[in-house]
Design a protein that fits this description.
Blueprint: H1 2-17, H2 27-41, H3 44-61, H4 65-69, E1 72-80, E2 85-88, H5 90-103, E3 108-120, E4 123-133, E5 139-151, E6 154-164, H6 171-175, E7 183-188, E8 192-200, E9 207-215, E10 219-230, E11 235-242, E12 247-255, E13 258-266, E14 272-283, E15 286-296, E16 299-300, E17 304-311
Parallel strand pairs: 1-6
Antiparallel strand pairs: 1-2, 3-4, 4-5, 5-6, 7-8, 7-17, 8-9, 9-10, 10-11, 11-12, 12-13, 13-14, 14-15, 15-16, 15-17
Length: about 325
């Protein structure tokens, strides 16, 4: 709809400057009339929702996370296309929006409403499409279902389900669920001093994690992990290389706020090891790691109990 208006204004301007040599073009005027007729025929509730969407788009273009969060109820939640809860509560949504804008300067969104249907008194279901375009021109399309409730005369989003179009997915779209890991971290354990740093590779096609560990048993160890999306197998894969010459490959699978990691490692002397690890996202400043089903060269090894890992905040 907005593209039609832009084309209409552009064409009318051309007609003004070329009036002496060209006949006026009537097509933009006809399109404007069609849009006006559509607006007149639109149910009142849909008009209100589309007006709200226009305000949402404006706030998004300003990267105003607080204004965007205000479009949600206090207990709003967001789920993905498979029913997994992604976010719960207005505060969590606001924090996620802030993190998104910090890493995506200049991003804009378009919202296209397909339908608005009444579910109950002052409750409606909106079906639509969202197109997010990054500053570099790359865009991602998704279909969404939004449950709106009227509170004190204002429509608010109580529940949002977003299904990203598979054809438009980028590596970043798949890795975005791990964006909370960006930053520096420190293991909260007395067994070793472990520091980890996570960041994006160029164009956000891969996540890279570097780590350093000092322990009494193994001394100093450093390593690098690269995480990416495998479009053939349809999962997140990771490759790790350490300073002793060992390397490993792992598959990451999401389960709510947990990531289940199956890894196979080749030690410097050629022995093989495997393990099942679990990372649980507790908050944006804390996660836990634990490991089970550990096997080294055919021999079962003890499990590693849950370890808390805290974000290292930058000093002022």
């Amino acid at each position: 709809m907005k593209l039609t208006l832009i084309l209409a204004l552009s064409t009318l301007t051309t007609c003004t400057f070329a009036a002496e040599t060209e006949a006026p073009r009537l097509e933009p005027v006809l399109k404007q009339a069609a849009l006006a007729a559509k607006s007149r025929d639109m149910p009142p509730q849909q008009k209100e929702i589309e007006k709200m969407n226009d305000e949402y788009v404006a706030a998004f273009s300003r990267a105003d996370d607080k204004a965007l969060a205000a479009f949600y109820t206090e207990d709003a939640d967001q789920t993905d296309g498979e029913g997994n809860e992604v976010l719960s509560g207005r505060a969590a949504i606001e924090k996620q929006l802030k993190n998104y804008f910090d890493g995506n300067k200049g991003a804009v969104v378009e919202l296209h409403t397909d339908s608005v249907r009444s579910l109950a008194a002052e409750v409606v279901l909106e079906k639509g499409e969202a197109v997010v375009t990054q500053a570099d021109g790359n865009s991602t399309k998704s279909n969404y279902l939004a449950v709106h409730v009227r509170r004190e005369g204002k429509w608010l989003i109580a529940h949002l389900t977003e299904i990203i179009s598979q054809a438009a997915l980028t590596p970043y779209s798949h890795l975005q669920e791990l964006e909370w890991m960006i930053g520096s971290w420190k293991d909260n354990t007395s067994e070793a001093e472990v520091h980890t740093s996570c960041g994006w590779a160029a164009n956000k096609t891969f996540l890279t994690r570097s780590f350093s560990a000092i322990s009494k048993d193994r001394g100093e160890l450093e390593g690098t992990e690269v995480m990416g999306w495998d479009p053939i197998k349809g999962n997140i894969r990771a490759w790790t290389f350490d300073s002793e010459g060992g390397f490993s490959e792992a598959i990451w699978t999401r389960d709510g706020n947990r990531w289940l990691i199956q890894s196979v490692t080749t030690l410097p002397d050629g022995r093989k090891a495997s393990a099942h690890s679990t990372i649980t996202h507790v908050s944006d400043d804390k996660y836990t790691w634990e490991s089970s089903n550990r096997v080294l060269d055919g021999e079962v090894r003890p499990n590693i109990d849950k370890i808390e890992i805290d974000r290292v905040k930058a000093k002022d």
